Amino acid sequence: MERREFLKTWGCGFGYTAFAGMAAQAASAYKSPLAPKAPHFPAKAKRVIWMFMQGAPSQHETFDHNPEFASAAAKNSDLIPPLFKFQPAGQSGVAISELFPHIAKVADELCILNAMHADSPAHPQATIQMHTGSFNFVRPSVGAWTVYGLGTENQDMPGFITVNPNGLGGAQNYGCAFLPAAYQGTPYQTRTGKLPNISNPELATDAQRKQIDLIQSLNKGYSARSGQDSEIEGIIESYELAFRMQASVPGVLNLKNESEATRKLYGLENAATRDFGLQCLLARRLAEAGVRFIEISHGNWDHHNNLKQRITQTSREIDQPIGALITDLKQRGMLNDTLLIWGGEFGRTTNGQNGDGRNHNNRGFTTWMAGGGVKGGMRYGACEAVNGSAVAGKVHLHDLHATILHLLGMDHTRLTYRYGGRDFRLTDVHGTVVKDILA
Amino acid sequence: MFMRSLWTVSLAAGLCLPLWAQTEEKPSAEALEFFEAKIRPVLAKNCYQCHSSSSKFVLGGLSLDTRPGIRRGGNSGPAVLPGKVEESPLIKAVRHEGRKMPPSGKLPDAVIADLEKWVRMGAPDPREGSVVWTESKIDIEKGRQYWAFQPPVKPPAPKVKNVKWSAQPLDRLLLARMEAKGLRPLMDAGRATWLRRVSYDITGLPPTPAEMDAFVKDRSRTAYEKVVDRLLASERYGERWGRHWMDVARYAESVGRGRNYVTPYAWRYRDYVIDSFNQDKPYTQFLMEQLAGDLMPAASDAKRNEQLVATGFLAMGSHDLIEVNPAIFQMDVVDEMINVTSRSFMGLTVGCARCHDHKFDPIPTSDYYAMAGIFRSTEILSGLQRRPRDNVSYFNASLLARISLPAGQEKTAWLTDPEKIREWEDLNRRIEAARSGRFARMAQLKKNNPQARPQQLIRQEVTRLLQELDRFPLPKDLAMAVREHQRIADCEIHVKGDVRQLGKTVPRGFVQVAGKANESGFEISPGQSGRLQLAQWLARRENPLTARVMANRVWLHMFGKGIVPTVDNFGAMGEKPTHPELLDYLAIRFMDQGWSVKKLIREIALSRAYRLTTAHDARNALIDPDNNLYWRQNRQRLEVEALRDSLLMVAGKLDTARPAESPAMTFKRGFDLGRGIGTRPADYSVTMNHRSVYVPVVRNFLPAMYETFDFPEPSETKGRRETTTVPTQALFLVNSPFVIDLSKSAADQLLSNAGDGAGRVRTAYRQVLGREATQQEVEQSLTFVDAMLSTKAGAHDEKTAWARLYQALFASAEFRYKG
């Protein structure tokens, strides 16, 4: 590059425009691993919001209305009957526990899977399996598979964000294992309010632009000497992406511009609902910004005792925020192509424990979905009344994963990655798409 | 790998396969004939639609299509009680007593009578269901024809046209292939570029400006050799090549998974690996020590320690300490050892044969269990135990190996204060007491306070005591290692990997296809695990894989790509070698030179092919766009360690001394890391100034920089790293306090030396990019420094302005490549 031309590109503030043309050229050779990819077939959902309930919520008090169980429990002192009433809700008349008045209002959107089952009754294993399909081996997270399969729509944002990830299993829950690092989830803590390294602690934007222009000038020279190597062009592009990310991410994470009405809708003014309300609102904003896979987390569902009191509390913390999220997405026309998933790593027993408590039950539990391509206002599957095991319409977590990928337009048997001599899948050799719930 | 779901499902459902699987006598031929003629068709026709493992919903949880299914029954218990006609629910149902089956209508009386007769006979049933075991159909002898199982053959000297290009056999093997395709190798890289490349490749550090000057000026014929020999003699060499091996050995300082406890002594293995490379220990010895060091003779205590520490290789696996079933846990640990051993040394995925014959390679399940016998007869001493009864003391120092420290060292090594020793011993006694007699104490606690939850009280007490114990430094004379198991035995084939479905017992042994038929000299006696024999068998010259796999790893790290690109998999699902003759040449060379890794590296580093430029060539690219034929050198990205070490070095901060032990020695030992206050490991990549190989690798808590720059997941063998390009890398380089601070340190140093601006720019370029800055670059840089000083919020002083320049160089693509 001539010196004069160079000065123009970085010295006088025209750098960015001058660069944009170059980046466009480079883009033809270089393909970002996060560039949007066509699904295997037309997708019903473009993105996922997973509401993970760590600790395993009891289905009997929340979304599994089972009168047979109630009457069996009346006769059998080993069992604890459901502690809350269920009422038919919406036009569909799906029964929702009285703990969830707000969610009941959007009951017609819910597709409740009452016969989920998983392979481990221990929290850490089950949490990891719910996220990766395996607890025996370190495997990519469902979010990583999704971004690997579809790329992401907005290159200025990470493709997979996990908000306040829970400690059980740690990074494995959003890790990419053997997939390239580009597909790992980006953890975001609402208490810090920012993504790591998203802004320069010392340089103002225009000063930093000058620095980046110098970097890019060096890079351009290097690229020219290297014969337009696509990998180097990828690095050049990554700086522009980073610079744009810096500009857009804080805006997306900043909830200040939300109206008073919206804040109220999500329950941000109320101490009980503030934390999860914030996460739900954030999820909507991330979804709007084109983030492909969003996970938000709520904990404290491991109710081995004092179930009645504790589940009242935890349910209150999520009810209004979730109701708000569904309502909000719907009014923005986004519910159609956003798949929501609610559930824990497993559920709880019909038997009692420690007075009014319930133990772990991975043989039968409830997860629900809403939006993006699932039938609303329905329940699917059932558990046996006394032992609480899934018996009809069983959905293993592998089936859930297969169904999620299907809704995103991907065949879970075709989404593979070759590692260590074999083609790996999220669902391994398992998984059946639950066709009956597809809209 | 994908094999565990069967038993997990049955385990999860709370079902136990009945003992009959092993104990029941085989039904007579007539009984089976009756079943096939009269019973199976009836069941299939009338019942399977709703009651078989393939029906859409297995109604009532009852499947009648297997013997386990029919005996175990569904939600309301067994369907058939052998011999007990009146009590068998299946009979009641078909008689329409109570439940009426099949729902479509009652079966003919004759059919019901057959069913009754069958139950009376004891319900003979050959349908094994999931317990079917078929003999392997793999033809081992045919499998041996595959290229990787054939011994390497020294290739004849290739005929090349351009004889002047190089006289080295290695180069000529490459050139012959190029010439056959009409490719011409490009020119050599400049001297500075080669020096930067070879310095990174051998030591992981850039050349200093003084080293640059010396080499560029050295016009002697041996200039290149001198550099390579200097680098190989440096201790930095072992740190870099040791780290390569640590990727293979899935090195980490915590166990990972369900209960992620620290393994505080892992660093001994780290140091062992580094030292072994620095000593240029013959690779076969290195291999044998890691698999069987505890069983090899040692001339001194020091040597015995070294060999014991080497076996930490086997104890380093990621195990799920929370696993409920001890038998499953044991077989998972065994599986982990089989995996790491076979991938590391043989480039084979033997682990795939756990549940069935290998689908792609000639490895029958019996080979897997032959190896499983060896490793099940081996006990790992990782300091960790599965599910202790108190659910707290996963870490237990008594589950580690003792090494013998020199007399003087021992004293300082452990507590010297007798008072402290008493305290420590007392604490251990109390912990032991709290753990034992647990049930009596629970009853007592319950008696004292009926409201109490004794289990929790005891757990709290043990937790508290363990926390107290954490205050004491760990003993010094411990290490992770393995030893022979008290129970040495052959292993049964676990049908479909299920610990409850045991098939025939197979004698301990190795992967047959990689050996010769009726090979002798490696017999395993009844009292030995067979690890030593396995190590000897792997280390023998005739093993077709051992030398090839390691030579290929060396090639990978010198050229950025293996001759077999899938370096951990030489099997059918791996990629074929691009240059089979070259691979054989290198393997034989490697063996002929006493399995010396340094000599192999030296030969490659001094080859013409290694010296070539990374530049582009339109003509060659048309013929061979991916440079499979090595007409140029591959452009290779710096790994995170090289990147971090270079930053520290340029900043004048790099501490090249080896740190004593590891920060992991100070981690809380009584906790699942990250769960509990103060248990989350710090990010040592930003707090330590030591080389990156010494930054603790804690599973699930990799330093942010490591995650960003493609550090491999440390739970499985990963001989070849990914290279990704993502904006988070750019963000790290332009925004992280780590890089900003190091840039300032570099600027500090620069400004403390006399010199004008242009000279300073030149120095910075030499330090960071290993080359001279062009005149244009000097001017450009000076303008930038001025601009920073004159921009609001750019830089408030000269040092900061120069720091911004350093940072730009650190962030440049050129810096991120080896040259």
Polypeptide structure, described:
The complex is a heterodimer of chains A (about 450) and B (about 800). Chain A is an alpha/beta fold. Chain A has helices at about 5-10, 15-30, 65-75, 100-105, 125-130, 140-150, 205-225, 230-255, 260-265, 270-290, 305-330, 395-405, and strands at about 45-55, 85-90, 95, 110-115, 160-165, 185-190, 295-300, 340-345, 345-350, 360, 365-370, 380, 380-385, 390, 395, 415-420, 420-425. In chain A, the strands form five sheets. In chain A, strands 1, 4, 5, 6, 7, 8, 11, 12 and 15 form a nine-stranded mixed sheet that branches. Chain A has a two-stranded antiparallel sheet with strand order 2-3. The longest helix of chain A is centred in the C-terminal third of the chain and has 25 residues, at about 305-330. Chain B has about 800 residues and is mainly alpha-helical. Helices cover about 45% and strands about 5% of the residues of chain B. In chain B, the strands form three sheets. A two-stranded antiparallel sheet of chain B has the order 1-4. In chain B, strands 2-3 form a two-stranded antiparallel sheet. Chain B has a two-stranded antiparallel sheet with strand order 5-6. In chain B, a hairpin with a 7-residue loop joins β5 and β6 (about 500-505). The longest helix of chain B has 21 residues, at about 325-345. Chain B is globular. Residues about 1-25 of chain B have low confidence and may be disordered. Chains A and B meet through α1, α5, α7 and α8 of A and α1, α31, α32, α35 and α36 of B.
